[in-house]
Amino acid sequence: MAVTDAPPKIDSMSSGMFTSSSPDTKRVIPTNMEGKTKFKIVYVVLESQYQSSLTKACNAINEGKEGVAVEAVGYLLEELRNPEVFKQFQNDVADANIFIGSLIFVQELADKVVEVVTPQRERLDAVLIFPSMPEVMRLNKVGSFSMKNLGQSNSVIGEFMKKKKKEDGSSFEEGMLKLLRTLPKVLKFLPSDKAKDARSFMMSFQYWLGGSPDNLESMLLMLAKEFVAGSDISDGSIAEPTLIPDKGIWHPMANQVFEDVTEYNKWYDKEHAIRTGIDVKTAPTVGIILQKSHINTKDECHYIAMISELEARGARVVCIYSGGLDFSGPIDEYFIDAQRRVQVDSVINLTGFALVGGPASQDHPKAIKTLQNLNVPYICAVPLVFQSFEEWQSSELGLHPIQVALQVSLPEIDGAIEPIIFAGREGNTGRSVPLADRVELLASRALKWARLRDKKNAEKNIAITVFSFPPDKGNVGTAAYLDVFGSIFAVMKEMKKKGFDVGDMPATAEELMESILHDVTAQLSSPELNVAYKMTVAEYEEKCPYAKDLEANWGPAPGHLNSDGKDLLVYGKKMGNVFIGVQPSFGYEGDPMRLLFSKSASPHHGFAAYYTYVDKIFDADAVLHFGTHGSLEFMPGKQVGMSGLCYPDRLISQTPNLYYYAANNPSEATIAKRRSYASTISYLTPPAENAGLYKGLKELGELVSSYKTLRENEQRGSAIVSSIVAAAYTCNLDKDIKDLPDLEANPREFSIDRRDDIVGKVYQRLMEIESRLLPCGLHTIGVPPSAEEAIATLVNIAGIDRPEENIRALPRIIAESVGRDVEDLYRNANNGVLADVELLRQVTLASRAAVRAMVSQSTDGNGRITTVSPLMKGGMNFFNSMTGGSPVKKALSDAGFPKVNELDITPLFEYLEFCLKQVVADNEVGGLMEALEGKFITPGPGGDPIRNPDVLPTGKNMHGLDPQSIPTNAAVDVALVVVDRLLERMKADSGSFPESVAFTLWGTDNIKTYGESLAQVLMLLGVRPVPDSIGRVNKLELIPLEKLGRPRVDVVVTCSGVFRDLFINQMNLLDRAVKMAAEADEPPEMNFVRAHALEQAKEFKVSIREAATRVFSNAAGSYSANVGLTLENGGWEDEKQLQDQFLNRKGYAYNADKPGQLDLQTDLFKASLKTVDLTFQNLDSSEISLTDVSHYFDSDPTKVVSTLRDDKKKPSSFIADTTTANAQVRTLSETVRLDARTKLLNPKFYEGMLSSGYEGAREITKRLKNTMGWSATSGEVDNFIYEDANETFIKDESMRKRMLETNPNAFRDMVTTFLEANGRGYWDTSDDNLELLQELYQEVEDKIEGV
Fold first, then answer.
1. Which residues have a Cβ under 8 Å from the Cβ of 1001 and sit 6 or more positions away?
2. 780 phi, psi to nearest 5 deg
3. What is this structure's pTM?
4. 179 pLDDT exceeds 50?
């Protein structure tokens, strides 16, 4: 910084509060106190619908003739986050008579309520807490009635609750409702004061559930009469609760609630439909789920708007509600008639909550079973609860994080789709108001889904959308590990069988691809790419309502993208009623300035024209996005809870969106679900195989085998060691083995232990490469794994302990049979102890043999599995005992482990049999066909099928997990191991602990591992996550330094845009943890967080708490640092450009004290990064590694840190690998080498890819491109990787010919990448190599141009 520069400033941040409404709008002050006793109530509620009813009730009392007057003030739970409001709340409770709370289910706010009410509880005349968290429920005090011992009480009520929980899993609220139903008349006659007080509580709950102003007036009068001293209230003024039925069918135009669906249908069809002009014979029927409290409190305006909109479009409606939070019963009773015929064509849940359990405790299996039985599309729309309409509209993040957790994440697990905001909250009255454009959209989408049920397949228009990333003709049909055109061909064959009109469908997948591309070798922008439709500018501007909005970024239409200069071009091909189109690119890939912007630009005209064509011209009944992933869901807009101005919402419009998504990527699938209203259908990634050894590595392996048999022969053993050392240098293993002797050393001078040590370390590296898992080839939709492929998956499933299933890993069982602990075996093998490297190899081979023996029992003559034969059921039966055990037992004995006990392996192999059924089951095509016929898509978790076999079978609507459930205890345990190994490795390499670690957090990784990397950050800080009373992780405790045994390590956490979208509550947790560590009164030398925060507080003139800001991400609605895009495009000036992009796009800070926004804090981001001496990322599954995708290097800050540090020293870089039970911590350079050896340079990998043709060739080039990405961001790529890759793909004439013929565009990109790597100084090679590359570039250019 120049001396004339002003000191750096932290950008000022607003309050960040979503809930900025004032409690004063909910305050009632009596104006006439003459002859009246005043009492004061304070209430806290989750939602605002009670505000209007309570206000009216209080005004009625104050205007009435009874001798009391009431002062009232209400608080929405979220308002308590504001320190000023919280102080006001404390003051109000301090002079209140009665406190009322309901649905207090947010832990940190529940703690605030307990903090304020507890010291006042004895003084208060009454405390009424309706269903809330247990610690809040314990505040209840109604005379002598309390719930202080909730959970242990022997009271009648407590026993009743326990009984109902045991009988049918009833939640607390459901139990209370059942008690009310059981004792409606008896309550008033119960003897004794205690029973009388219990009656008062239960009657209060009835009044509360009744919700109307009259009911609440009677409740307040009853409480005042019973418990407020000096009140003079006549019995006649307290009316009995006026209640509608606990469950029923409600309609605003009916003069009754219907409890029988036949009666309702009779009224609707014979009276209401005739009055409104609805043709009941042709009308689709939409089922609507309502919240009873809104009906009770007359806060139903938003419901009436939704009903009116649907009926205005000619639809019938059936609107149901439930008294509790379980809607499964009413659905079964009212959406299905007496003949078990489903009465509805689609369902909209307007409560926003999970189907069974609401915000408290959910029963997802029960919900899924109910929805499967109904088998219609199920939309869960969201009413704004914690924000006013204006607050939501102005928020870049969109929906409040607590609502995202409760009303988006949890319904998704039920199988809900399309979380569309349909209602807001009026700030002053708290009443719900419909959002007109959102209500219209919701009605349109629900009816589009409904029409898929009755429209004939032959008449349905289906738009299949493929992707092209990066935008190049050789990349059309991009999708993660998917043979896109082979898969589309398989899908269209099934569509033809089901009666869809597919026109003159090509006879092969290759012909299908050529018909869309027209000429595979053509440029994307060339006329050879098939043009399906030319859209004039006039037509575009007429049919695209937001066309003019795009001109700010792209100028007037048609622009230069997807355009011939006159018209906008829609690329693709129409076959009958099926359109296969190519989604346009983002458009800013080649514009360095756009890439640098911290926020993403709007879509370009060509992109908008494509989706306008799909919706308005082709008139698609559904669009199918094919494979992981496209650009639609990443367009600018709110994070969650789209408005009509958000581009994903504008683009997809009213069209049902189906999306084939890789099962291992639930996080980005969730973004597609929330931002583009996608219903995902999961597909398998290719089964992982062992990488094996090849070329020089294979020869080295053979030398090691020779040594094992001749090690004690002084002469021959020493000679083999010489050969091993020489071969290790040839294979560049010297870069991984620090103490490998030099080539001049004489092994005869070494002791046998030293020779064993050398060979053991080489052997360990070879086994690391050989056993590494890699997906081979590409998956085709609808093709389940072969038996051989299933074996690889099952071996990995068998390698993990599953304590929750009481299952031990197979390697553990085998190791124990020879008296060894598997953790000890892993540790020694990792350290290169020759005997243990060999034993671990034998254990691994035995595991494979045992699984193969099991699978072979179910394999048919074609090498496939149609039926799984039970092998282990009942353990070792009589036949097995006579023949030496089961085939599995025999296989283990033959592999050298005869002492493995059959009973020990039986639970594991019974579990593996179940997993085998899941692995080979196939519903990928079936799931799509069901969706196209307007049926419910069964939900299921996404993630790693090895860690979580429930991911299988595929073909399910993928979801993530409850964001408040992570990190789990198991994840914390694994994280502790990884952090200990990381710190040990760092201390061993550098002599000291790191002071600060730069961390990258990914959405998918944390879903797959249940928060392992999240927990790693907490463990570095020395902060432990603690679950609350209902199991959600949102509390923290500082681990004492004496227990920690080391300094607290500072962190700088860069969250991916996807992590930000899915886990903003966990970003809150991390920021609170950092602040907790920074504010701990500890010596700075033992608390690096505090040491750095103190320095930064002084530098920026802010508090230590504000200086302790360490959690960063993109701006809301933006994703990635765009480093990957820049490298894909080429033409970037220098590494500084990449580093500036990273700092500008990733420098948005999260602050737990000011939630609801991310503010650009570039100076603080830089100040935090300049203290970093270690960068760190995680690998968690075999399918995706460092060079498979650009994400990892896109977020790598290694060189950024070195330019920011005062000493310009490059930080150490480490990667944690938890892809197997044997967790490893390696340097980044070690991991890049391992990745290159097992993939890019491995014949098993590249031959597998080339067998997939056009798309496989692209996958090979992508690995090389991503390798260069690591050179650019970290400088940790060895020269030999480029040299060996050049040897493999360029200097081998037959190989380069195959690449050129398979996908010339991909081969040109490979040649360009080699030349660029040399030009930027990442690869030093010979002039001959460069001349050949330049010649090849011209040759491939000529071929592509047709010269």
1. 1013, 1014, 1017, 1053, 1054, 1055, 1056, 1059, 1063
2. -110, 130
3. 0.85
4. yes
